Amino acid sequence: MTATARPASTTPASALRALLASGRVTHAPGVYDPLTAALAVRAGHRAAHLSGAAVSAITLGRAEPGFVHGAQIADRASTLAPALDGVPLIADADTGHGNPLHAVWSAMAYVRAGIAGLHLEDQAGPKRHGHLAGPELIGATEAAAKITALADQVPEIVVIARTDAYAVRGLDETIVRCRAYAEAGAEAVLPAGVDTLAELTAVHRALPGVPLVVNRSEAGGSRPALTDDELSEVGVRLVLHPVAALLAAMRAASLAYRAIADSGTAEPVDRMPWAAFTTLAGQEEAFGPDARYVPGTLQT
């Protein structure tokens, strides 16, 4: 079984397809504004990710992705594409926000915003982190219909099919759904919750030729420490880190605020130099001559 082939081009989507076909693991860190996008590019990343939870948190102060719609994610993504400079952006499409027609609408908005790929899940409603009963799933046929609609009507975007079956129905159902979604037109599959080498191997053997994506969100707790070589051997081509940078930024901000509250200065806190910040923001001339001497390979 192989994922659906797409014509080659020079778009961000074609760059993402090349990564999926490369035979190696690519890590996609979460970005959420133009500055974090620029930092990811300067760090050498070849893909980036926009999380629904991150968009919800920074726009509404709520960490649950169900509070935002695809239109809001597309709007946020449109501010990131220029800073990514061609690096493909993968965005959370949640459940597609309704039926196949709604999923197509969301995907078209994503394409206009410069998004290269999306991941679409088979939960019956918005993701709920930390709930005890596990996710409620829609039927595999219904989920596959959304994927087919996207593959047929929005070929400009890479479709990654996520299934949350593992938490409630186990590995066998996860494999059944991943196979159905690949046959429906998904170019990669994300078996949420499948983390051990043995189980990833089982998925890979059942779906030869289909790229696997794994999610390393801190929302899912600790996971086995698998190397890139191990992941590559079992067909993993993308590893998402949706909120790592956001959590790091929030931690750094909390330390700065606490230092100011305690001592009246943020001097003890490690911060990016002002010249580096203005260089990153493209404002060297506006903010002074020192910024132009910050190396292009900015180290923070």
UniProtKB/TrEMBL annotation:
It holds the Pfam family PEP_mutase. One of its GO terms (molecular function) is lyase activity. It comes from the Bacteria. This is Isocitrate lyase/PEP mutase family protein. Transmembrane segments: none annotated. InterPro entries: ICL/PEPM (IPR039556), Pyrv/PenolPyrv_kinase-like_dom (IPR015813), Pyrv_kinase-like_dom_sf (IPR040442). Keywords: Lyase. It comes from Actinoplanes sandaracinus.
